[in-house]
């Protein structure tokens, strides 16, 4: 099983600032790494897949990078609607696994 | 537009059973692999199961293997999760989500249905 470890657990920032979220995998199995955003009481929304490809309709302030076992989600300038919890997920092999989440708060 | 609507959640006693459904619309259901993911109150996301577009291939998380059964009816555009021998730790919001194929991410999710296992 591929274990995903996200850091930090919580990121306290202000609108307009840059957010950098990390996801580290226990082993490498291709760049089948996705990032999701979840707001309180809502379903997760796909932001990034294939480590660096933006999903349809996702603003370009969201970007993904990394390969192998180290991946990063960057939000270049935080908008008020970006304050949420972010999860990474690997979909390379069963069992699919998620990181424990990073909360981006004001 | 793509819609995934879960139903069937509720309160059930430990050891009991429950069947969840996910109604799909706005896309060609038979083209997509489907998955169930759950989220315990205040916790993170946990993948539960995954079924291929034909229904021939199904994977389960170890935590539910032997207790949960995933199935789909492509003629009815529906996905089901039959849950039995339920435990308190199965309490969660259950989401259904779709993926275009194996090695593709979950690109659309339903709003979820809450299952509470308690005496």
Short description:
Chain A is mostly beta strands. Helices cover 0% and strands 48% of the residues of chain A.
Structural class of chain A: mainly beta
- Please count the helical segments of chain B: 0
Mean pLDDT of chain B: 97
Order of helices and strands of chain A: EEEEEEEEEEE
Distance between the termini of chain B: 40 Å
Name the chain pair whose interface involves the most residues: A-B, 25 and 21 residues
Helix share bin of chain B: under 10%
- Strand proportion of chain A, as a percent range, falls in over 45%
Largest sheet of chain A: 7 strands, mixed
Spans of at least 5 consecutive residues with low confidence of chain B? none
Residue share in helix of chain A = under 10%
Number of helices of chain A: 0
For the structure shown, list the relevant keywords.
heterodimer; A: 106 residues; mainly beta; 0% helix; B: 119 residues; 7-stranded mixed beta sheet; 4-stranded antiparallel beta sheet; globular
Tell me what you see in this structure:
The complex is a heterodimer of chains A (106) and B (119). The model of chain A has no long low-confidence stretch (mean pLDDT 95). With 106 residues, chain A is mainly beta. In chain A, 0% of the residues lie in helices and 48% in strands. The N and C termini of chain A lie far apart (34 Å). Chain A has no helices and eleven strands. In chain A, strands 2, 4, 5, 6, 9, 10 and 11 form a seven-stranded mixed β-sheet that branches. A four-stranded antiparallel β-sheet of chain A has the order 1-3-8-7, with no helix packed on it. Chain A has strands spanning 4-7, 10-12, 19-25, 33-38, 45-49, 53-54, 62-67, 70-75, 85-90, 97-98, 102-105. By secondary structure, chain B is mainly β. Chain B is built from no helices and eleven strands. Chain B has strands at residues 3-7, 10-12, 18-25, 33-39, 45-51, 58-60, 68-73, 78-83, 92-99, 108-109, 113-117. In chain B, strand 4 (33-39) and strand 5 (45-51) form a beta hairpin. Chain B is globular and about 40 Å long. Chain B starts with a strand and ends with a strand. The mean pLDDT of chain B is 97. Chain A binds chain B through residues 32, 34, 36, 38, 42-46, 49-50, 55-56, 87, 89, 91-92, 94-101, and chain B through 35, 44-47, 50, 59, 61-62, 95, 99, 103-112.
